[in-house]
Amino acid sequence: MPADSPDAWCVIGAGPSGLTALKNLRGCGIPAECLEREEGIGGNWRFGSPSSRVFASTRLISSRRLTEFVDHPMPRSWPAYPDHVQCLAYLESYARRFALLPHVRLRTAVDRVERPEEGGPGWVVTTADGNASRYAGVVIASGHNRDPRWPDIPGAFTGSLLHASDYKSPNQPVALAGTHVLVIGGGNSGCDIAVEVSRHAARTVHSTRRGYHVVPRFILGRPADVRGERLLAMGAPLWLRRIVSLRAIDRTVGLPWRHGLLRPDHRLFETHPVVNDELCARIRSGAIESAGDVAEFAGAEVVFKDGSRATFDVVICATGYRIEHPFIEPEHLASRGGLPGLFLNLLHPVHDDIAVVGLIQPDSGQWGITDVQSQLVARMALAALSGPRAAAWLYRQRQRPPRPGPIRYLDSPRHRLEVEHFSYRRQLERLVSGMDRRLVRELERAPAPEAAGCRRVPRARGPARP
After folding, report:
1. pLDDT digits (tens, 9 = 90+) for 160-176
2. Residue 242 in contact with residue 266, Cβ under 8 Å?
3. Number of domains composing the chain
4. CA 274 and chain centroid, separation
5. Is this structure's pTM higher than 0.90?
6. Residue 203 pLDDT exceeds 50
7. Which residue of 147, 249, 271, 411 lies most exposed, with the fewest beta carbons within 10 A?
8. Same domain, 203 and 286
């Protein structure tokens, strides 16, 4: 097994982030294996598995062009926004193409990740069955949709109280036909669930704390994010992107306040995009009623902060997730304020043997970005073995103050992991290119066995062109 090798790395989780981390480590000649707790790969996209948070009608909110891995395009015959069945099929084909499946141990949940008791380098990973293996490094790719965050609402609700993580369809886990339903939360899950519920429930009320900008999936026949990518590639300033985008949104679905919704208390792009084609139309038709924040539960009644009250049968809380990694002590991730203190939300500021891939919420597709993250992690692992100058250079980069992003996001738990995808990816690509140059120079001067591994290092690729 790879764990028998002193240079082996362990990847925790076989979702999109874990698969690309495994591929890139092995592509750089680093022995690695992946531990996955479920019966198959795909992570969140394996609908029906205990850890999956998608529901039956879930599809991507970023287009396939800006979601796919650069070296494994999605079929052109697929829709612009594939559903969860297609996403899982795509991830399975990715794993087959890069021969990853033999290196994935399924039904292997991780219980603890800790430093060896006797000291020294590396990590000891203990699985739920009590088996412990030692690794040179660890990549955590277990996602951040594990632990549901419940709203802090006083009182008790006597109807059915669900979190969005439990919602699977209008019939599961609760039959919603003919019921009165309150959906709490203005994110993508909350909006999608409210739209779907409104086709079955007798009454659907959607509660949000503030107004949000709503972006349609398509603008003038093309995916909205692809049109936005063109402006980014052209170097358009933020103020111009806002003007162009707001006008396009207004022409397509109308701005929120034209439908009686609250005006957002922030500018476009300062929150994670709400991507929905139907929400505004369902509100305008009366199928969804908008409401403000909830003040308290009072039996079957819900009291809103404006003093109004209503009786509901079901409340669905689409209020996000806590950022938790329960199998590792927070200090191993340089945590502060409950959030891992990682360079670019990826690398430990000091140690070269641990990384967290996918601990981001980009304003576009994520999988291609996690591929570039994993390219950097793989080069860090290779430098720790054979490239001390490259390792020292990367260490210095991690000690620099973080660059402020082009957008200042709303200060809320939902946005603690938010990144502007274009500039974030550019930062990663510059680091990958810098490591490539230094590794090639060092490994070409190294003895033949080390140099042979360097030539398998894949080059970073730029973002998909719109």
Report:
1. 999 999 999 999 999 99
2. no
3. 2
4. 15
5. yes
6. yes
7. 411
8. yes
